Amino acid sequence: MAKVFEKTKMLTDVPFHYCPGCTHGIIHRLVAECIEELGMQDKAVGVAPVGCAVFAYNYFDCDMMEAAHGRAPAVATGIKRACPDDLVFTYQGDGDLASIGTAEIVHAAARGEKITTIFVNNAIYGMTGGQMAPTTLVGQVTTTSPYGRNAETQGMPVKMAEMLATLDGAYYIERTSVHNVPNIVKTKKAIKKAFQYQMEGKGFSIVEILSTCPTNWGLSPVEALKWLEDNMIPQYPLGVTKEGR
């Protein structure tokens, strides 16, 4: 029988710990496939965050470092400068990157560090119990905004891709989604392009990926995919926000 699919060798056989319907697993596979297809298995170094993906070092079959909360870009900067020929990436959620790690990601981009960030935006703090994140939508109910996010008292959602695109050091920034197959395909292309630009020494790259959190959104996996499409994409439009300098 002809083999039609084979799991990438860049993922270990450790079962994912993610909740049913969580799209972290899809994103892990896309990152792993891109590294393998680029022939960088032995030169890839990932930096895991604090958050739902804290155990990413168990899943990617490459050298991995664990960073303090929000500090993954700083750790990645040190690795890349010490090993400039390695493919160095951070894998971060919106609480890790857009809240406690805002300074690190902004200044890594401003310096034009030759690293790639995979930014998973599910508009909520996942691991810690569903609190409001910087990316939480106006009106969205969380454990710390039980009546919905109030723009008057809690501000507006932070659009990281647009914000980072204003920095001269950033080379490639794209926002994608994994709520259906066509967008999963587009996400893989974006991740591969970001890695290729890093390998070419172009500068800082980041792919922001809209993702679901069925558990903390209080929805079924299917409902969560629909909620992302109907609510997150209008707030966070898909597409390239910067390419080149």
Number of helices: 9
What class, by secondary structure content?
alpha/beta
Gross morphology: globular
Regions with pLDDT < 50 over 5+ consecutive residues?
none
Q: Strand tally, please? A: 7
Helix content: 25-40%
The largest sheet is: 7 strands, mixed
SSE order: HEEHEHHEHHEHEHHE
Biggest sheet strand order reads: 2-1-3-4-6-5-7
The span between the termini is 49 Å
Radius of gyration: 17 Å
Mean pLDDT, to the nearest integer, reads 97
Strand coverage percent:
15-25%
What is the compact description of this entry?
The protein has 9 helices and 7 strands; from the N terminus they run αββαβααβααβαβααβ. It is of the alpha/beta class and 245 residues long.
Task: Please describe what this structure looks like.
The chain contains nine helices and seven strands, in the order H-E-E-H-E-H-H-E-H-H-E-H-E-H-H-E. With 245 residues, the chain is α/β, with parallel strands linked by helices. Helix 1 (24-37) packs across helix 7 (181-199) and helix 3 crosses helix 4 (102-111). The protein is globular.
List keywords for this structure.
2-oxoacid:Fd_oxidoreductase; alpha/beta; seven-stranded mixed beta sheet; THDP-binding; 9 helices; single chain; 245 residues; oxidoreductase; TPP_enzyme_TPP-bd
